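User: Structure please.
Assistant: Input sequence and predicted structure:
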Amino acid sequence: MKTILIIFYNILWTFVYVLTLPYIYVKRKTSPAEWRERMGIYPFDYSNRKGCIWIHGASLGEITAASKLALQIKKKFPSNRIIVSAMTVTGKEHAAEIMEGIDEFVLLPFDYLPIMNRGIERINPRTLILIETEIWPSLVFICRKKKVKIVLANARLSDATYKRYLRFKCFSQRLFNQIDTFFPKSDNEKEKFLRLGVHQKKIGVVGSLKIENSITRPFTRNELGIPPQKTVIVAGSVRKGEEEMVIRAFKALRENGNDSYLIIAPRHMNRVGEIESILAREGLSFLKRTEKVSYNGEHVLILDTIGELRSIYSVADVAFVGGTLLPYGGHNLLEPAFFGVPTVFGPHTNNARTDALDLIETKSALLVKNEKELQKTLLNLLKNTEMRKEMGKNSRKYIEQKRGVVDAYIAILKKTGFIEEQ
């Protein structure tokens, strides 16, 4: 990447930081420990040690996707020090919960040359594995200068990000040229990177890391206090504007004589209050997961916790994945499939297009276009036990056929010298 471009990028960031840092520090009530890590001041300094493997993901989804890769690298190459970083405190905490045995968990420093350089000096990476879309210019620039090998794993670009990179191809192509290897999650994603100027020889499609997320212990209905005779709908990662659509569809099911139970998990916890208001307005009683109160005939459980959704899908008869009825791009469509749960989603699946097409093609999921179709499809599935069983069987078969992604990653990374015994 030309030095002039990275300098220009950092000049822009100077203005951004001047305007936003007071807000970040005061309004978000940033803790001193978090602030130090954002400034690249870590409670360790490995600058005089052998280089480590550094894995970085944005937040919950990317961290979860990277978890099995990180754990398997540690298992097969135990002498390597592995550091996992996240953009969010939630992501860092989640990483520590699901990646026992990894050496360090940190927050990524601000992407500003002197700050990022300080953090990189302390981490001292030999290989940097970025997950999905976490391509930070200063991070990439400094690592390239220090001869750190850079991998973009599970690589994907949303339609909006892709168009933005195309618009500034002069900059994005130089940025991508600094990355050694790309592992797009699908052929469709591979084509995007090729059109952005990434050389064919740098790209290898291995598959989606999300296929092999670390399997968490499934919940039982007894743990959640759900009567065994209830049919359960889990609506996961529901976004603003979708909450009412899901709740109205559920209410219509009940009015049609279907005695089902809804577990609704908002994508963002700041929507819990609004969901409570909608449920009250619709005359539906509810519990919140954090209240730890036993079931007493309520209609709905609000999942107001972080990190439990994937396991909660295990109790579902039918799942709806949010961010798809409205143009948010969709969320992880594979999570219900792990447990053989028939899945329903809307038309907006730009962030998971390949998964959406595969699930529909294998008859593991159903596509709905709007609230009315959602209601009709849920009712049909809840009435048709055989259909649910068949879709569930198809889901499990699909997941099983896609396994082996992590082993393939490690084999390639070892062969190319990105990871090795020290």
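The two ends are 30 Å apart (CA to CA).
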